[in-house]
Design brief:
The chain is an all-beta fold. The protein has no helices and eight strands. A hairpin with a 5-residue loop joins strand 6 and strand 7.
Length: 112
């Protein structure tokens, strides 16, 4: 079981696709199965997520952000949650953009 309420995350690894970097901070909130959040920093000016818990260790959400050159990016993400040896949450994310190429990528976020 996991609870993302008031948890913050930073990037641990990222595929080439994406505007997020090690300066981007994610803030998550959770009420039962509802999950939402915001992110900013680095190449992201402002971003929002909204989604739902789908399995015991999984969530799906939509995201939208504006990057540092003013481009709007949207997409969906499937996330599997695990725990580090220290008990910190790890978010293993698979993203697909809503662009003409339907480009996709993976990232790993670590609780800070």
């Amino acid at each position: 079981m996991f609870n993302l309420h008031f948890k913050q995350f930073k990037l641990s690894s990222n595929s080439k696709l994406g505007d997020i970097d090690d300066q981007t901070v994610f803030k998550y909130y959770q009420d039962n199965n509802e999950i939402w959040g915001e992110y900013s920093g680095g190449h992201v000016q402002s971003g929002k997520i909204i989604g739902r818990k789908t399995t015991e260790n999984g969530i799906e959400f939509q995201y939208e952000h504006v990057n540092d050159v003013g481009q709007r990016k949207t997409g969906m993400c499937r996330t599997e949650i695990s725990f580090s040896r220290e008990g910190k949450l790890i978010l293993n994310e698979y993203r697909m953009r809503n662009d003409e190429k339907k480009s996709s990528g993976n990232s790993i976020l670590m609780e800070v």
